[in-house]
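Session log. Operator J.P. requested a structure for one protein chain; no other inputs attached. Running the standard single-chain path with token output.
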Amino acid sequence: MRRLHTIKRGPTGGGAPVTESNANAPGAGEVWSPFGSARARLAVLAVRRFAVSCARGLWVRVPWIAAGLVAAIPVMNSTIKAVQAGWVPAGDDGIIATRGWDVLTSHTPLVGQYSEAGLVIHGQVMHSPGPMLYWLLALPARFGSVTSIPVTMGVVNTLAVIGCVALARRRGGLVLMFATAIGIALMCQSLPTEAMHDIWNPAAGLFPFLLLIFLGWSLACGDHRLLPVTVLVASFVTQTHLMYAAPTAALLAVGFGGLVIGSLARRRARSAPDEPLHRPPRVWPWAVAALLVAAACWTMPAIDQIDSSPGNLAMIVRTVEHRGPTLGATVGWNAVVRSVGVRPWWLFVPASEWNRKKDVRATPSSGEVDSTIVIIAALVLAALGGAVMLRWDLSAAALIGLGLCGAIGIEAASNPATTLLAATLGYTMWWGSELGFWVWLILAWALWLGLVGLSRPAIRLLDRRWRAHRRALPSRIRRAAIMLVSLGTLGGGVAVANAVAATAKPDSHVYEYRSVRAAAAGIERLIPRGQTVGFHTGPLDLGTQPMEPAVRFFLVRHGDRVLANGSVPRLGPYYELYNRPVQWTVLLVDGTRRQRHRTLAARVHFIGPWGNEVLSAWVRKVHPQPVKAADASRHAATPPRARRAPEPTTH
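Structure written below.
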């Protein structure tokens, strides 16, 4: 006999399950219910359905996750080696890490990284458009080990690569997915190994910009749900460095243009009398979300523009308008040739990460020029052919390639011709590798689509003959064949990625990592936490100069307020010394010469590219001095904003 569950009747007629302990209680009225076991079974079935759904969703995503991880092997290898080397933020990385620390403080940065372009062109300070790179580094700069900073960038770049592979799978199936994964792994050989985990702003935007290319393509194909993510990534790369401004504008123009044209076409199709009624996709919620994301990303630069006179955005416009003599159209065309022509940047390992500033000034061969013309003509034909065949995805991809070619040409041609700024082409042309990879990928995919279209009648004929004589292959056998081919392709991708990882070079400041940690540890042993420290440097050569921002960051992370002359351009007025009182002073100098009235905190010896190096760190406790009443009143009457900042020093 089936056991029936009992329900105890409550005072209002409700009930609760009755156990053996209270079933025989006095006055316990009981009502028999045959539905208790049914509810339990339904709950078990719901949990089982949810588990099966999750398993199926994960299984569907396994191919592009695995392919994305294979493509990101060079990135992960670079990050792991940086952690093993004991990475520290040397050089400009120290400034960026310090500003990342400042995000969660009352002096949060409103603008991006300091740029020398403004000082060179018109003698005024200019920064990158926004602080989103600092936002990304806010938590790792404060918590955990210092090596969590490059790990964060490595994770972001890995996720960007996986996103590219996933979007390629959505747009072009397994063929385009595997081609994208292998192409990205191959492209990594042309980029500096350090750039794959570096927080330096030109390097930090490289892989997010690669993701933006695929996002812009998907947006042009009508994937309106990617609007908020596209705006977020576009804002990040634009605020990271101005080198991404022109290509980002080209990507957004194609992406938004394709989305608008597609929406209008669908609206006209729905208005046709013989067209069946379909529920139109709701684009406006995603557009509103994108506007909110844009507002959040650009609030800080807008506040700086309103609060400062002139604001940083105005300074950027002024710098662009008054940049003076430029490198010219020849250099711009050479940049396009080096990016997409045979042999493009992305298909070989450069002798130096800065070689591109020389490549764009060297005269290309006639073969390189001719191949570039052929490739650009092929892009035009792909765009037109896609429109004729109603393959708007192919047209949008080709238009993106053409737009990026124009962007890199304009960027190189309009670069100022002064010696210092002309040398910046050594890193502002890094994204030319991603341009070349995209153009070659799209042309290969267009060729594949053409071959498939031409061979489709023959495939159908063979299929009919096969079915006439034999039974069709079972679906399980077809799936097994596809899986074997996919595994073989994935194995080939692993081989390519490992070969690229084998070409990795050590970080440019790896010889300083251990010495920086030793110097910072020696200073922190003598100076308690939470002190105001006057930070000074003596003569430092090229081998020890990058150590100063790293030591400064360690002191900030230690909880000290580090004040130094010339801090306003790079770090803001909060770190400027002015006439503020300090409790300790720190002096970094080359050599072993003793400094009077100071205590030696650390002395490090190492061998760098310029030979043997010795850096000494000296500290001194500052005893408070009585301040005269007249001096104190005069100092209090002068607000910090009105005081003239000292001339910036070279770091």
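Operator note: The longest helix spans residues 148-187.
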